[in-house]
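cron nightly-structures :: item 1 of 1
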Amino acid sequence: MDAGVAAILGATVGGILGATGTLGTAFLSGHLQGRNHHAQLQRDGRRTTYSELLRSAAALERAIDKLYSNAGLEERNRDEISEQAQLVIEHSHALRAAASTVMIEGPSGVGELAKTMAEGAEELADHLEDGQPSRETSWETGSFWDISMGHFVHLKRQTEQFTTEAQKALEH
């Protein structure tokens, strides 16, 4: 084989290998970039749903605080307390809806905490619905308010746990 043919053959083989390497690198780079983009979209979706659940929990806590601050007054306005209890019930239902979305987005550990929060909020709502002013004695007894406060304290702990786990999930 003469030197000219060898040079052309070497250039051709080198070009093919170079092009193959470039295409392979481009493919892998694009594939990794696509995976990273998908992961970012997933984190953004989770961040949005986690934030919505935390906003719902904060709104529920404010409604509970308002209910309790008025319930402790000497002159209780039954209609106002009833309206505030209804607001707590509505916020409990909103929290449950937000938790359902978190359970879908995951991951499972965060979803389980969201489910626990939703169950706690619903227990509080059920307790308040069972104790509406039509059953006057329930509003007057300390045990009604103690049970409600127990639900509230439990919900605050669950919210703190959820926040910690949600932050961990978003970091990965």
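cron nightly-structures :: done
The helical segments are 3-71, 78-105, 108-130, 136-140, 142-171.
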